[in-house]
Write a structure and sequence with these properties.
The relative contact order is 0.08. α2 packs across α8. A hairpin with a 3-residue loop joins β4 and β5. About 2% of the residues have low confidence. The chain is built from 13 helices and five strands. It has 322 residues and is α/β, with parallel strands linked by helices.
């Protein structure tokens, strides 16, 4: 539990799930046993002491903690947006080029393009959701801890204002797949041909998807899809454009300079400069530079008009704040 939290803060979901299970069973015990209560408290004591010790040994720098960021950024709008986003993100496991954007490529320019539904993915996810509910109805009592862990993990993602992407649901994916399989097994006993047909369609889909990625790698796709992919492209963490930005920062900034960037850990890894992320102008006073990206901007350009530009490329702009 402690290691999971220290590796990724979402690991606090294990703490929440374990605490809920313990409280449930303690509430059901008629005669409270002091020894049992003491043993139940051991993992929480170890967790708290471990976190305090690590905070003391590895003093944070370059920004505020998760609670401070959460308090300053959370809103009803961000919660509703995240609910919609994470409700549909499962369809991305079945994603191919969205036919809606092929018909109207300008949809990608919308600020809400990330909520644009992919009909094929949503259809596949809706079918999986049906089997997921069936599976949970069979084994929710047995898998109560896993269910609480999944619920806590998704709640953290919904409450955390920035969108985290599909990789952040990987930790709960094995449980979801198992519950879907249970639902399919329950249906198979009554409708075996239906399940066999669906499995065949699923296999055929992934053959199609792999064929698409293979064709994409060799630029053998139709022109409309290639044009769409070119619109979606932006530099990855260690593409040539990104490396040039890192080289400029390493060469033209001081080792103790702090730089605001939407991916602080990536910037620190590439430049050895402390970094933090914020969308509040008043928090820029802690930094000497702001590195903005066109694909994940932290501020509106009008807000930064009075800052001088130290470096600019197609997708990156480095502002001098001092």
């Amino acid at each position: 539990m402690l290691y999971a939290y220290l590796i990724r803060s979402n690991g606090i979901a294990i703490f929440v799930a374990l605490c809920a299970i313990h409280l449930y069973y303690i509430a059901r015990i008629q005669k409270q046993d002091l020894k049992y209560l003491a043993l139940s408290a051991v993992p929480y004591v170890v967790f708290v002491l471990g976190v305090v010790l690590m905070r003391y040994m590895l003093d944070s720098a370059g920004g505020e903690g998760h609670i401070a960021v959460l308090v300053e950024s959370i809103s009803l709008k961000s919660i509703v947006r995240n609910i919609l986003y994470y409700a549909g993100i499962w369809g991305d496991f079945f994603a191919l080029p969205n036919p809606l954007t092929l018909l109207a490529p300008s949809l990608l320019e919308s600020r809400y393009a990330f909520l644009l539904p992919n009909p094929l993915g949503l259809l596949a996810w809706a079918i999986c959701l049906y089997f997921l509910v069936l599976g949970l109805s069979e084994c929710y009592k047995r898998d109560m801890f896993a269910l609480l862990f999944v619920g806590a993990s998704l709640a953290i993602l919904i409450l955390w204002p920035p969108l985290q992407g599909i990789r952040f649901v990987f930790s709960v994916l094995p449980f979801v797949v198992i519950w879907i399989a249970w639902g399919m097994q329950k249906t198979y006993s009554k409708h075996p041909k239906l399940i066999i047909t669906m499995c065949a369609l699923l296999l055929g889909y992934f053959v199609l998807k792999d064929s698409y990625h293979l064709a994409s790698k060799h630029n053998a796709l139709p022109k409309a899809i290639l044009a769409l992919k070119s619109q979606e492209s932006h530099p990855q963490a260690f593409d040539l454009e990104s490396k040039r930005v890192y080289e400029f920062i390493t060469t033209h900034t001081k080792p103790n300079d702090i730089i605001v960037f939407f991916k602080p850990r990536v910037l620190y890894l590439a430049t050895n400069r402390l970094s933090y992320s914020t969308s509040k102008l008043e928090r820029l006073d802690k930094a000497q530079y702001l590195l903005e990206s066109s694909f994940a901007p932290l501020f509106d350009k009008k807000q930064l008009a009075h800052f001088s530009i130290a470096y600019a490329s197609e997708h990156f702009t480095l502002y001098a704040l001092r």
